[in-house]
Structure formats: C-alpha cells, structure tokens
Write a structure and sequence with these properties.
Strand content: over 45%
Number of helices: 0
Order of helices and strands: EEEEEEEEEEEEEEE
Radius of gyration: 17 Å
Helix content: under 10%
Length: 184
C-alpha cells in the first residue's frame, strides 16, 4: 500500500506499508516506510533497506523466485524532482533477519548489470511501464526531443516504440524494439 502527501510548507512525503503474511503460528508483519521527496536520482548500483528507502508509488507487483528466495518485482513512479518523472523497476525481498531489502543485481542492460532500472523523462510526459507476462516487462523507449538535448532527461519522452526486460537464466535482459501489440 503506497501513497504520497503533497504539502505546501514542507517537502512532500511518500508512505508505504508492506504486509508480510505470517506462518500458521505467527501474525502478519507490517513494515512501515516513509521518505521525503528527493531531487537526486534513485541509485541503480546499490541496495536500499527500509531505513534508507528512496520513496515511490508502487502500482504493480509480481512474485518472482530467486534461488531459495521469494521476491517481488515492483513497478513504481517517483515524483521527487519537479522537472523529471521517474519510473522504477525494483525488487523487494526479505533478509535472513526478516527486514526489507530493495534491489537485486538482476537487470542486464547489455553494458552492466544493475540492482534496479530507473527511467527518467520530462515531468509533463507520459511513459508506459507494465508487465506483459510473468517473465516480461514492457515499456516505452525514451529519446530526447532533439539531438541537442541528449543526456538532459528533462527533455526525454517516448518515441512510440517499445523495449522490454525478459527474465531468462536468472536475469532480466533488456531487449530493444519489441512488438508490444496484443498477441490476439
């Protein structure tokens, strides 16, 4: 369960509750998270815990099994920067001590393997990011509005083509320019 508070006098705040179902003899456990909006980008090279969570609104999740570890793939959005919107693919799991862990070195973009994938684009733009199946995540391909704006994410948006991450051999692999039409 996630929500955000947009406030005029102090920084806006994200709130999140994760509810972990207890075993037959144990009660459900509730993890309460909160984070203020940050303009800094969400890092892709590290894990986060409940105490340093970056803050996001999660709108979809799917279970995914790692070697002897249950985890969930999260799709979320982050409004921390007024000029850039961020969409996030992340992984949440539980440590041996039963604490939350965000991130898993699973996302292979071809040049490196990251703990999560973060898409940044113009705040007035729209980007789709969704599960296509249990093993495929489809999203808009983002490009600069003009070549002169390359590397300035305030001027990025979709170009009406799609890319995906496909889960194969224990990693989510990036595939560029996929056919995202309904197969029926």
């Amino acid at each position: 369960v996630t929500w955000n508070l947009v406030l005029s006098t102090i920084p806006c705040i994200y709130h999140c509750y994760f509810i972990k179902k207890g075993d037959e003899r144990k009660r459900n456990r509730i993890y309460k998270l909160s984070a203020t909006y940050r303009e800094d980008p969400v890092r892709t090279d590290t894990i986060y815990t409940g105490s340093d969570w970056y803050g996001a609104l999660y709108y979809d999740l799917k279970p995914c099994r790692s070697v002897n570890n249950q985890c969930w793939i999260l799709l979320g959005i982050n409004y921390g920067n007024p000029e850039i919107t961020r969409k996030i693919i992340d992984v949440v799991s539980f440590s041996q001590a039963d604490s939350l862990v965000f991130g898993k070195k699973w996302f292979d973009s071809g040049d490196q393997i990251r703990f999560r994938n973060v898409f940044e684009y113009a705040a007035n733009g729209m980007m789709s990011l969704r599960f296509d199946s249990e093993s495929t995540i489809v999203f808009d391909h983002l490009v600069p509005f003009s070549p002169a704006m390359k590397d300035d994410r305030r001027y990025y948006g979709p170009d009406y083509s799609y890319d995906s991450y496909n889960f194969q051999n224990g990693l989510w692999h990036l595939k560029i320019n996929v056919d995202a039409r309904n197969k029926e």
